[in-house]
Write a structure and sequence with these properties.
This protein is an alpha/beta fold. The protein has 3 domains: about 50 residues, no CATH class; about 200 residues, Vaccinia Virus protein VP39 (Rossmann fold, 3-Layer(aba) Sandwich); about 90 residues, no CATH class. The protein is built from 14 helices and 12 strands. A hairpin with a 2-residue loop joins strand 3 and strand 4. Helix 10 packs across helix 13. The protein is globular and about 60 Å long. Bound molecules: S-adenosylmethionine and zinc ion.
């Protein structure tokens, strides 16, 4: 981490300012290993491999920590030769590169950094947090950037100054928290007056919920994720090509998605010009299947419910920007602006 980011940080327990307590290793202006301390309550927080750590390594998101360290790069645009992540971010948020330029962004639940590396190129300053050891799978290039700070921290208790970001960004994460409305209430105050929050969630449309994960997961809930992985590795060589073959017949796609517990995501990356090898293309689908089946929490919500969470947090100009998945963007009122200017609109998708 760079010391220039200290002014954005605050103790997650008492909101006191943080200061550098010890530096064991540096790389130019960046602290690689050392520790931070709260100037109010004296609590210490280690910095390891450039990342300040505010939570223990183990928690309900361990499956993600494991998954993102096992499959670090497959979904990264910079690795697979596509623009799929960039296109998805821009399409789903409806933010333009011009709008993003120069903004300060808080990314909640960054995983191994598929979105992080793309956002880092487009925005002014980026603070990306994840509670699991997925942060250790961020690329060295992203971690070394001057405009990026990655934190191992809980989005429900961000070690940051409130009301200090132009944009809050939470993509493919909130449904994996134990209590999504509460998690949103805990993130929402970190956006500055006049700033916006982009919130994505899995949705409850029948086309989305008729997915094998919703019947398989309850059956294997108690399995350690390593065991799920072993089984998927055994079944994958049979199920992956079967799903691929059946998906060529359009009317079978939906029943296949529900009945056969394996993904085949060959079409989209291939069409987008992916440079992944045959083996990596298989692993890409294995990763998505593992991601479907192992989260401790998967609580989808319709976009109208997300709108209500925004309203409850006093946001205005709340807009549904997607229905499958649920995507809502809202704005925090500017100083002096009344929350009565509240305005909720539904998007087309
Ligand atoms: C499906 S992954 C999405 C990662 C990334 N946003 C992406 O789209 O590639 C969900 C991530 O949310 C993280 N997560 C879940 N609950 C969290 C919490 N309370 N605080 C921080 N991160 C959390 C998990 O560790 C995991 O890396
Ligand atoms: Zn403190």
């Amino acid at each position: 981490m760079r010391e220039s980011f200290l002014e954005r940080l605050a103790c997650p327990d008492c909101a006191g300012a943080l200061a550098v307590a010890a530096v064991e290793r540096r790389d130019g202006a960046a602290i690689v290993d050392g520790s931070l301390a709260c100037t109010a309550c004296a609590q210490r927080f280690p910095v390891r491999a450039r990342i300040p750590r505010f939570v223990p390594d183990s928690g309900y998101a361990d499956n993600f920590g494991w998954q993102w360290n096992r499959f670090q790069k497959l979904q990264r645009d910079s690795y697979n030769g596509t623009h799929l992540v960039r296109d998805t971010i821009l399409r789903r948020s409806q933010f333009t590169p011009e709008f993003l330029a120069g903004k300060s962004v808080l990314e909640c639940g960054c995983g191994s950094g598929n979105d992080t590396e793309v956002l880092a190129e487009m925005v002014g300053t980026l603070v990306s947090i994840d509670m699991s050891v997925a942060v250790d799978a961020q690329s060295p290039a992203t971690l070394a950037r001057e405009n990026v700070l990655v934190l191992q921290a809980d989005l429900r208790r961000p070690p940051l100054r409130p009301a200090s970001f132009d944009i809050g960004y939470c993509h493919r994460v909130i449904q994996h928290t134990p209590d999504p409305p509460r998690a949103f209430a805990q993130m929402a105050p970190f956006v500055a007056p006049g700033g916006v929050f982009f919130l994505h969630s899995y949705d409850t449309h029948w086309k989305s919920t008729r997915h094998f994960k919703y019947w398989v997961r309850p059956l294997i809930r108690k399995w350690p994720h390593e065991r799920v992985f072993r089984w998927l590795s055994r079944l994958g060589p049979l199920l992956y090509p079967t799903v691929g073959a059946l998906n060529r017949i359009a009317f079978l796609r939906r029943p296949v998605k529900f009945l056969i517990p394996f993904e085949n995501h060959d079409r989209i990356p291939s069409k987008a010009g992916s440079t992944l090898t045959r083996r990596e293309r298989y692993e890409y689908s294995l990763l998505i299947t593992f991601d479907d089946l192992t989260p401790e929490h998967d609580h989808p919500h319709p976009p109208e419910t997300l709108c209500r969470w925004f309203e409850e947090q006093g946001y205005v100009d709340i807009e549904i920007r997607g229905r499958r998945p649920s995507i809502v963007v809202g704005r925090r009122p500017r100083v002096g602006e009344s929350a009565d200017s509240r305005n909720v609109t539904s998007g087309r998708r």
